[in-house]
Amino acid sequence: MEDPSMHQELSESICVEEYRRSSEEKFFNRERTLKLLELYKKYKPKVGSFEIKSMKRLWEVIAKDLSNMYRVTISATKVENKFKVLERKYKTIVDNNNSTGRGSKYFEFEEEMEDIFQKKKNIRPTILLSSSEVIKVTQNNKENVSNPQPQLVALDSMQIRNNVDTEPRQETEVPTMSVAENSVAVGQTTKKRKIENNYKRPSAAFKKRNDILLDLKNDLTAYYDKKLALAQKKMELSERKMKDREQRTAQLEKFIQERTSLC
């Protein structure tokens, strides 16, 4: 026999989830959603720095900015959930539009999400042509694969006349390029470009890490310079005190000698 308390807990959790979704939908209209994506694009490159050390801190910063802009308290959890919903929708749209035989779907924030995720491989996967060749799925490649254009061979007019005079009339086959051949050609071109541009260049994260280490080194050097200067000042002050004591001692001895001579 089923426990009625379990049904009650399940219904309560469903109600809480529906309330959460409705509250998020009420807050995140088009303007605020665009502002969320703008702030994400602004702060995401700073993740891992002293300002924003983790993704959790990223959502907190975005939530704080949105709350200050619209004077409505919004939690970091709601901001994170809204962005994940947008990310799932965008992935679905990309997968649908990359699939052959399917009509393209409309997504309201596709252009903004494209600016954010255009270089991520989990959003823009690669198509494997063979065991050694891979091409990226782009709009130009999709058009080339779905609509291959036949390549016509231009024959010289004198060659055509000679063929007509010497050989019986035959049907001339016009060579065309298949979809696979066209895809392979596109893949080879893309591969050449990759090889040309695949020189090791320092990434943004590598540069950022070096900048952070350089700042730490400079701060440490400045700290020890200040510490050394302070130690030198203390030494100078102690030397002055020693000289002052010597002068006082000499004056006191002189005074005692004068008093002794008078007596």
- Supply Rg: 38 Å
Q: How much of the polypeptide forms β-strand, as a percent range?
A: under 5%
Classification by helices and strands: mainly alpha
Low-confidence runs (pLDDT<50, min 5 residues)? 126-157, 164-168
Q: Helix proportion of residues, in percent?
A: 55-70%
Work out the number of β strands: 2
Average residue pLDDT: 74
**Helical stretch count?**
9
What composes the largest sheet?
A: 2 strands, antiparallel
Oligomer: single chain
Global morphology = elongated
Note the run of SSEs as H and E.
Answer: HHHHHEEHHHH
Q: Total domains, how many? A: 3
User: Distance N terminus to C terminus?
Assistant: 120 Å
Strand order across the biggest sheet?
1-2
Task: Briefly characterize the structure.
The chain is an all-alpha fold. The chain is 69% helix and 2% strand.
